């Protein structure tokens, strides 16, 4: 006698529930999606076809399509073809869409044509969280992460790569032409000669393509072009491997790990601090915020812009002078006397203030001592120049940066808090995306995908914090 659990015979008649609603429990997350989308004013958010004409073929209401996409991204189903299949067999989607089954082209077109509405929906959910008092005594961690683009590395070109490829094809063409010119002295069949002629013709065509690509690369501002997705860029990842990708900036609340703001960019983290911080301030309606970032964001002008808004900024100070590699004294080995406004060099000499200078749009104060530097015994350890003395340049607002650096050093475990806050959401979203990350091309479409992923992430976080029933009550208030 078998002790396994047995199923029912497949030919046995079954009495299903009379209503589709009986299949979906009261705590099912799909009910949260339904309540949230029904609470939105889709026309004001920028969705198309909310109001339709009386004539012509009817279309699906944007609310139904938005519910479908939120459900898909919440359950790691991002493909429009897979979503189409799910509408035919998934009981939760049958309930959510009221048994509507749009085809994959309609589903894909909705995401493509409603990028503004989807972006505003993502922002609207943050406003809902704000109304629920989720952001009090806010500490926000900012970081960027590279997400793979739909573009192979082989389809990305730089000046060096195109130059090397052109040289290699030139050498190959000359090699085959030399063989063909000397074919009478060697034993080659007619078939071999035909194959070589075809190879030379193909390589000449490829050489013309590479010449055109070289021109485009040299004319491009970044000196890099990607052929499959022109908006993607070849960037270094955390392990210093170059990858064709987008750099997604995010600002995450350290208390509840909600992503308050995000931005898809095409370059490194430097210069993005004020951009992301201003978006967070706008989303929360306050400047009473403490921002944390890693050394990749260290930019004096950027930090000053954030501090001027009234927010606190904590970024580790970095040295990019390259003095240590050159084998000379680093800037941090020169002590600055704030009261006397002068520097003291490692030899003990005083470098007084001499003049002002402009560098990269920043007003700098220059400190130098020509006589002391000329007669110094350790001059070779201070500068490689034979004629010019060692000069110290100090930004006119450097005191504010120094004060910020002192606050950073006093803040305990601040780097650990940043890692625990901002890196976890990136890992979660990348796991949902799968190995290939993005499915679409171009910056606009990639940004729409990112908005849907972050909306799904924030929605799941809130369901974990408040519970599905509690979140539905807050949405309907």
From TrEMBL:
The lineage of its organism: Bacteria, Pseudomonadati, Pseudomonadota, Gammaproteobacteria, Alteromonadales. Residues 344-463 form the Transposase DDE domain. NCBIfam families: transpos_IS1182 (NF033551). Residues 19-112 form the Transposase InsH N-terminal domain. InterPro entries: IS1182_transpos, Tnp_DDE_dom, Transposase_InsH_N. It comes from the Bacteria. This is IS1182 family transposase. It holds the Pfam family DUF772.
């Amino acid at each position: 006698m078998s002790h396994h659990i047995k199923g029912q015979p497949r030919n046995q008649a079954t009495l299903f529930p009379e209503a589709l609603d009986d299949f979906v429990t009261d705590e099912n997350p799909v009910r949260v999606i339904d309540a949230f989308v029904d609470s939105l004013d889709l026309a004001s958010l920028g969705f198309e076809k909310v109001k339709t004409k009386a004539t012509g073929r009817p279309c699906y209401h944007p609310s139904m399509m938005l519910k479908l996409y939120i459900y898909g991204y919440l359950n790691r189903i991002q493909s429009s073809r897979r979503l189409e299949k799910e509408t035919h067999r998934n009981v939760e989607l049958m309930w959510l869409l009221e048994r509507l089954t749009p085809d994959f082209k309609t589903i894909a077109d909705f995401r493509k044509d409603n990028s503004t509405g989807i972006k505003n929906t993502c922002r609207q959910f943050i406003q809902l969280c704000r109304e629920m008092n989720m952001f009090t005594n806010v500490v926000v961690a900012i970081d960027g992460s590279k997400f793979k683009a739909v573009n192979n590395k082989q389809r990305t070109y730089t000046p060096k790569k195109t130059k090397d490829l052109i040289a290699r094809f030139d050498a190959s063409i000359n090699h085959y032409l030399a063989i063909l010119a000397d074919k009478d002295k060697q034993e080659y069949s007619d078939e071999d000669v035909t194959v070589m002629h075809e190879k030379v013709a193909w390589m000449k065509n490829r050489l013309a393509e590479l010449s055109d690509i070289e021109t485009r690369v040299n004319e491009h501002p970044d000196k890099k072009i990607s052929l499959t997705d022109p908006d993607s860029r070849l960037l270094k990842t955390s392990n210093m491997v170059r990858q064709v990708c987008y750099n997604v900036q995010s600002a995450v609340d350290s208390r509840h790990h909600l992503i308050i703001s995000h931005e898809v960019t095409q370059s490194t983290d430097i210069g993005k601090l004020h951009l992301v911080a201003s978006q967070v301030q706008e989303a929360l309606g306050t400047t009473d915020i403490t921002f944390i970032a890693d050394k990749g964001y260290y930019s004096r002008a950027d930090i000053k812009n954030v501090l001027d808004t009234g927010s606190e900024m904590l970024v580790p100070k970095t040295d990019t002078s390259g003095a240590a590699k050159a084998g000379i004294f680093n800037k941090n080995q020169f002590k600055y006397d704030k009261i006397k406004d002068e520097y003291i060099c490692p030899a003990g000499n005083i470098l007084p203030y001499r003049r002002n200078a402009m560098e990269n749009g920043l007003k700098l104060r220059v400190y130098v001592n020509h006589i002391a530097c000329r007669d110094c015994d350790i001059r070779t350890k201070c500068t490689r120049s034979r004629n010019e003395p060692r000069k110290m340049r100090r930004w006119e607002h450097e005191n504010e940066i120094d004060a910020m650096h002192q606050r950073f050093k006093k803040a305990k475990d601040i780097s650990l808090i940043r890692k625990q806050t901002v890196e976890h959401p990136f890992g979660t979203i990348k796991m949902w995306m799968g190995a290939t990350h993005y499915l679409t091309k171009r910056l606009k479409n990639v940004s729409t995908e990112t908005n849907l992923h972050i909306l799904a992430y924030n929605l799941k976080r809130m369901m974990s914090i408040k519970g599905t029933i509690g979140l539905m009550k807050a949405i309907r208030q």
